[in-house]
User: Fold this.
Amino acid sequence: MLHVRQLRLRAFTSESVFGCDIRFDKPVNIIRADNTSGKSTCLQAVIYALGLERSFGPKIGIPMTFAMQERIQRVKDGEYENVVKSFVEMEIQNESGEIVTIHRDIKGSAQPKLVQTWPGGLLTGAGEKGQQRDFFVHDAGAAQNDGKRPITPLRSCFPASRAGVRRSWRSDGRRSW
Assistant:
């Protein structure tokens, strides 16, 4: 089982830095917030950091909200600022207790398929920064045996569908699925 320990989102404009850091505890976490406050963005960021964005469908584009790719507001109903750079970082832990920190650019990178990793918990301070290891997702041959143990692409461990069922209120006041 994979445990997400920490999630970091950052969006940079020419004037400001926006973002959040969310710590996840075992065994269950609930993210509760008002509409348009970033709950879906957090879920999309986890999926994107792991290179699983094709689980949303065959489209190859980045499945992140406009706040991480195009424009963001400092305050609700305020002026928008254009996003010039953004990224997601995530700290994960496997069943053996090994911790890895992942970094993937959302906007502002020449290599959107690049996923950078480091052993250790760089976001929570759990260990020293080790040797950086780069992976390219969605390239033929990207998941190969490194001679030590077979590498299973994470996308093969998840169904090719959305991670959850989306419910919403319809304009007539009834719930839709």
User: Anything to note?
Assistant: The radius of gyration is 17 Å. The longest strand covers residues 80-93.
